[in-house]
Amino acid sequence: MAMRNDHAPQATVSIVTVTWNHREEIDPYLNAVARTAKESRHKLEVIVVDNASSDETAAYIRSRNPDINVVESPTNTGFALGTNLGFQRATGDYLMMLNPDALLNAKALDGMIDFLRSHERAGAVGCALLHKDGSVQVSSYAPMSAKSYLVNQSFLYPVVERLRKYLLCVLPPAKKAQGCGYLMGACVIVPRRVYEEVGGMEPSYFMYCEDADWGARIRAAGWRVAYLPYLQMEHGQKGSSRRAAEFTFRRLYRSVVHYANRNLKAGARSRLLLAMRVDMMLRLPIYALIGWFSPAKRQRYAERRASVRKLIRIAATGNPDLYDDPLPR
Length: 329
Known about the structure:
Layout lengths: L12 E7 L7 H13 L4 E8 L5 H8 L4 E5 L5 H11 L4 E5 L3 E2 L2 H13 L3 E9 L9 E2 L4 H7 L4 H14 L7 E2 L2 E2 L3 E5 H7 L11 H11 L3 E12 L9 H19 L2 H28 L4 H20 L12
Helix pairs in contact: 5-10, 8-9, 9-10, 9-11, 10-11
C-alpha cells in the first residue's frame, strides 16, 4: 500500500515530474509551474525526479527554482519507478503526474480538482492536451485490446491520427466529462485516497503502457477515469523519445506485450499479440520501401527493421524480455 509522507507541510496538490536530460527544454515547464503556483486557488508542491541525467538537469532546476523538491535517482529507473519515487515524497491531498514538456495552467488545474471534489467516485482525471498549433492531441483511450492496438499503436496510427485531428478541428468541442479506459500519463490527477488504495505506477514497466495498467487497476477497484475536454493544457509530446528513437520504439511494444500478460485473459491476450505480429510483419516491406526510395533514411529504417524482427519474435513468444535493451545515455 502506498504510504504518506507526514514529515513535510501538507499541500493541496503534489505535482510529480520525471526528467531525463531535459536541461535545454525545461524552462517553459518551470515558468508555467511558477505562474500556476501564483494563480491557482490551491497550494502546490512540485517534486521533480531526475533519472540520472547527464546534462545537469537537476542542478539547473534547483538554480531556477529552489522551492522545487528535486530528487536525483542514481540510475535511470524509467518513468514508472521515477513517478513512484515522487509520489512517496508527496504530501498533497491530490497527486498529479505532469510531463516536463507540459505547460501547466491554473484554469486546467483548478478545474480538474473541482471535478474530483464534486464527483465522489472519480478516481483519475485528465484534461485536453494541445499541440503547439492548438490542435488537440489524443490523450484518453479505451482499455487496451486488439482493436485499440490497431487504432493507437499499429502502422495505421498516423492515418488515424490525421483523421482524428481533422474531426477534432471541425466538430464542436465536447463540454462534458467523458469516461475512458485510461489517460495519457502526461497529465493525470488522482485523489490521495485512490493512490493509497490502488498504489502507484506498476514498476515493472520502464516506459509506456504504465498509464494503461494504472487506469485498468483504478477501474478494477471501482473508481471512474474521466477526461475533461473543456479544460486544456499545451503538451510538447515525445520529448525524450526523440533522443533515443529505436530504444523507445522497442520499449513501447515490449510494454504492450507486458500489459497483455498482466491484464488480459487468454483469448484477449492472444488476439492482441496476433494483431501486433501482423502489424510488425506488414511494417517490414513498408520500411524497406521507404529506405529504398530515400537514401538519407536508409540506415534509420534498416535499424527499424531490425527492431521489428525482434518484436515479431517477442509477440510470438509472449516474452517481452526475450531481448535485452541497454539503456540509452
